[in-house]
Write a structure and sequence with these properties.
- By secondary structure, the chain is mostly helical.
- It folds into two domains: 38 residues, no CATH class; 55 residues, no CATH class.
- Helices cover 47% and strands 4% of the residues.
- It has a two-stranded parallel ribbon.
- The radius of gyration is 18 Å and the shape is elongated.
- The two termini are 18 Å apart.
């Protein structure tokens, strides 16, 4: 698993060989695996706007409705704004291009 994440961080995806141990098997390196090592959890928590309302929940079944209700209070954003915010949130792989396997 760690090798798969490293391959994704390098920008590789698809059926990629990165060790002899995986020779002969079919792999699927998902580009999203890079997120495992590229999320700054304290920074992500600071940007999470609904943590305050989640603190009032005690059961898992309460979480989804609370988030849904919170989302109704937010202004609609254009997709380009959302994509820019996501891109700017991740520091991993800056300046790298994604390579196809």
């Amino acid at each position: 698993m760690n090798g798969s994440v490293v391959a994704a961080v390098r920008g590789d995806f698809g059926d990629v060989r990165f060790t002899e141990r995986t020779k002969g098997s079919t792999l699927f390196i998902n580009p999203l695996m890079a997120l495992y090592f590229c999320v700054d959890l304290p920074g992500l928590a600071r940007r999470n706007l609904y943590l305050g309302v989640l603190e009032r929940t005690s059961l898992m079944r309460q979480v989804s409705p609370v988030i849904e209700e919170f989302r109704t209070t937010l202004p609609r954003q254009e997709i380009s704004e959302l994509l820019r915010a996501v891109r700017d949130s991740f520091r991993c792989g800056e300046g790298r291009s994604i390579r196809h396997a």
